[in-house]
Specification:
By secondary structure, the chain is of the alpha+beta class. This is DUF1905 domain-containing protein.
């Protein structure tokens, strides 16, 4: 349904524990919103399959401040040696539920 590839600088969002995200460039927001109508399971979260620097994983896009972010799970991020401030190449796919 929708496939995107982009490079992002990893950010950290602190809650009770730190979480790391790859912000999706804003120019992709309209296409993601359109795809979300068929793929979202609620709360604005959109399930995806993705790769970060070639490592495949599944997760859900998270909306934040008008854009979407790809959560980077520790099991993906740590083996790649990625942390806040690093650039990461992301490819993602959104499919209908």
């Amino acid at each position: 349904m929708l496939t995107l590839t982009f490079t992002a600088t990893i950010i950290e969002w602190r809650g009770p524990a730190p979480f790391f995200f790859a912000p999706i460039p804003p120019e992709h927001t309209p296409a993601i919103r359109a795809a979300a109508k068929l793929a979202s399971y609620g709360w604005g979260c959109i399930p995806i399959t993705a790769t970060a620097n070639g490592t495949a994983f599944t997760t859900s896009l998270m909306p934040k401040e008008g854009i979407y972010m790809v959560p980077l799970k520790d099991k993906v991020r740590r083996p790649l040696g990625l942390t806040m401030g690093d650039d990461v190449e992301i490819a993602l796919s959104i499919s209908p539920r």
